[in-house]
Amino acid sequence: PCALQVKNKAPAEVQITAEQLLREAKERELELLPPPPQQKITDVEELNDYKLRKRKTFEDNIRKNRTVISNWIKYAQWEESLKEIQRARSIYERALDVDYRNVTLWLKYAEMEMKNRQVNHARNIWDRAITTLPRVNQFWYKYTYMEEMLGNVAGSRQVFERWMEWQPEEQAWHSYINFELRYKEVDRARTIYERYILFTLLVIVHPDVKNWIKYARFEEKHSYFAHARKVYERAVEFFGEEHMDEHLYVAFAKFEENQKEFERVRVIYKYALDRIPKQDAQNLFKNYTIFEKKFGDRRGIEDIIVSKRRFQYEEEVKANPHNYDAWFDYLRLVESDTDAETVREVYERAIANVPPIQEKRHWKRYIYLWINYALYEELEAKASKRTRQVYQACIELLPHKKFTFAKIWLLYAQFEIRQKNLPLARRALGTSIGKCPKNKLFKGYIELELQLREFDRCRKLYEKFLEFAPENCTSWIKFAELETILGDIDRARAIYELAIGQPRLDMPEVLWKSYIDFEIEQEEYEKTRNLYRRLLQRTQHVKVWISFAQFELSAGREESLSRCRQIYEEANKAMRNCEEKEERVMLLESWRNFEEEFGTDTTKERIDKLMPEKIKKRRKLQAEDGSDAGWEEYYDYIFPEDAANQPNLKLLAMAKLWKKQQQESEAAEMDPDKDIDESQS
Fold first, then answer.
1. Ranges of Acidic residues compositional bias (predicted)?
2. I need a surface site. Which of 11, 70, 349, 505 has the fewest CB within 10 A?
3. How much is the pLDDT for 421?
């Protein structure tokens, strides 16, 4: 034939790729093919021919790949469907020779025998299976189930016993136990539990809490409560304190709760809570709380809350041992609820966390741990010896060359005084002053000796104190007051003289005021005036002048008014050159108040003329970088005495007067009727 000739060789508009061809072929595989025609066999020859062809097909498939077990199973099942049991058995045996480890093959083989009621054959197959593959639990389950269904309880028990010798998993033991319980063999079930627990103890195959709990619940279910309690106790003893589990104690407590043994329940919970780590005891806390709410009193509920709070504080201090606030809260909790040994243990743990840096700001919170510890030992535990040891240990710990805490020394000394041990108290305070002198230590020591009325010791201490801190005005004043109380006026005056002669003082105004008040109390007015004059040589402060004037007024003599007025005049003259005009205004106001109370009309008129005029002014402001920041309004004072000496101020006053006259003339021109009325009048 002649070849076809393609006339149009141009590419088609729609191109088909190889991928599309493969996809289309795959999709068409899923299309339903029409079923093959049914073949009816009418005689024996056709049947034998069909069997021959089918067997040949199966044998060919097996010959191609002997390891594909599904081909063997299909072949055997086909023979089984034809009731050719002997042939099917032969096929299974041939398959087992190929792969005896295949679990499905054994199962199918045994199921075939059981379906065809070949019980002994089935037993034989199961025996071979469990002997060959003893770790396949499915064989054991199927075997025992078959024996039980046949009513062969003894045979099933025998199979279970053979299984238990292999120490199987937990579920196998429970299946054996449930088997015995189905036939009401409680004693046998208990024996199995004991064997199981014995394996747990000796072989440590299943050291799990839930196995013990199941055993105990089994005993409880069958009303053997004493046996159940013994099981729980054995479990607690077995796991000990190293492997404690909260689930065991919760189950034990619930068992005792069901038996109405509430005290036992409380003991179990407390025992477990004291030994199990707190982070692993959340469920235990929860169940204990529920129990106390149901059967406990207020005290029991409080104990649970305290335990929970203790756990929280333990976590906080474990996360940050230097969190002293957490330690304070923790200690406050244990002090309110536990015994002395526990409190001491927590205190020792707390004070062991010494601040890593020797700076006082890091020690301020830490030192109160020692103080609280000592106070607890003294007031709560009533242990004076331990209190002394706490104070001494704290004092040895402090780095006195860098810093110290006067509070510790003073508290220690006060403790020794309460113990009527005065020499030790003085020795402690003397040591503190020698090692690390501080104002607070001197004051505390002096106060102690004052209470004991040891005035000579007080004088010596004040001398040491003033050698250490000569600028401390309070110390000079207290020393002088002490001498005044003792009646030694000359000594007190000498102390004041030494004090005001110091080159550097922290509060000189307080010292001078105290000295002046001292002389006024002694009614030494001339000496007081001399003191004021000496003070005015050092400072011209307005308050000194006012105080001086008030002193002269209160002197109570005839010339007191004239002296007071004279001082005001001196002060006014002295403060004319003062830059602080507010102070001068303060002086004049004080002078005016004095004249209003004691002065005449002439003196009042004079002081009124001296009072300044308050005016508003503006001044230019500058920012920090020197730029212009605008204008600011402020009030200034113009004193008449200063205005008379300054021609500019006179010129300003005349300008103001001229401006006022101009305003009056303009007002008159705008209102001529008023001028006519004025001229007529």
1. 666-681
2. 11
3. 82
Listed range (174-183, 200-209, 316-325) with the worst mean pLDDT: 200-209
Residue 430 reports pLDDT greater than 90: no
* Dist CA 265 CA 290 (whole Å): 12
CA 588, 591, 596, 600 dihedral sign is negative
> Which tokens sit at 447?
């106060």
The pTM is what?
0.51
- Phi, psi at 228, each rounded to 5°: -65, -45
* Widest Cα–Cα separation across the chain: 172
Straight-line distance from the first to the last Cα atom of the chain, in angstroms, rounded to the nearest whole number: 159
Q: What is the DSSP letter of 14?
A: S
How many residues would you count in the chain?
A: 681
Q: Are 552 and 563 in contact (CB under 8 A)?
A: yes
pLDDT digits (tens, 9 = 90+) for 547-594: 877 777 777 665 777 777 777 777 777 777 766 677 777 877 787 787
- Residue 674 — very low, low, confident or very high, per pLDDT cuts 50/70/90? very low
Residue 4 per-residue DSSP state: P
Which residues pair with residue 631 across a beta bridge?
620
Mention every residue, 6+ apart, whose C-beta is less than 8 A from residue 81. Answer: none
Q: Which residue has the tokens 């003259």?
A: 573
- In the block, tokens 């250490």 appear at 468
Report all structural domains of the chain as residue ranges with CATH numbers, in order of start.
208-296 (1.25.40), 614-639 (no CATH)
Give, in order, the Cα–Cα distances in Å from 389 to each of 354, 395, 396, 416, 430. Answer: 18, 10, 10, 12, 19
For residue 385, the number of C-alpha atoms closer than 13 Å in the C-beta half-sphere is 0
Helical spans, DSSP H, in 338-438:
340-351, 360-363, 367-375, 384-397, 406-418, 422-435
Question: What are the tokens at 366?
Answer: 């830490």
Give, in degrees to the nearest 5, the angle at Cα 57 between 41 and 114.
Answer: 80
Read off φ and ψ for residue 534, nearest 5 degrees: -65, -35
Q: How high is the pLDDT of residue 103?
A: 92
Q: What is the pLDDT of residue 681?
A: 43
Using alpha carbons, select from 97, 79, 81, 99 the residue that is nearest to residue 89: 79
Confidence band (pLDDT; 50, 70, 90) for 653? Answer: low
Nearest to 242 by CA among 270, 198, 275, 197: 275
List, as one string, the DSSP characters of 599-623: --HHHHHHHHHHSPEEEEEEEEEE-
Written as one letter, the residue type at 135 is R
The 3-state secondary structure of 316-366 reads HHHHCCCCHHHHHHHHHHHHHHCCHHHHHHHHHHHHCCCCCCCCHHHHCCC
Exposed e or buried b for every residue in 20-44, given b needs 16+ CB within 10 A?
eeeeeeeeeeeeeeeeeeeeeeeee
Residues 6+ apart with CB under 8 A from 207: 200, 243
* Closest C-alpha among 51, 54, 53 to residue 71: 54
pLDDT tens digits along 30-44? 676 777 788 788 888
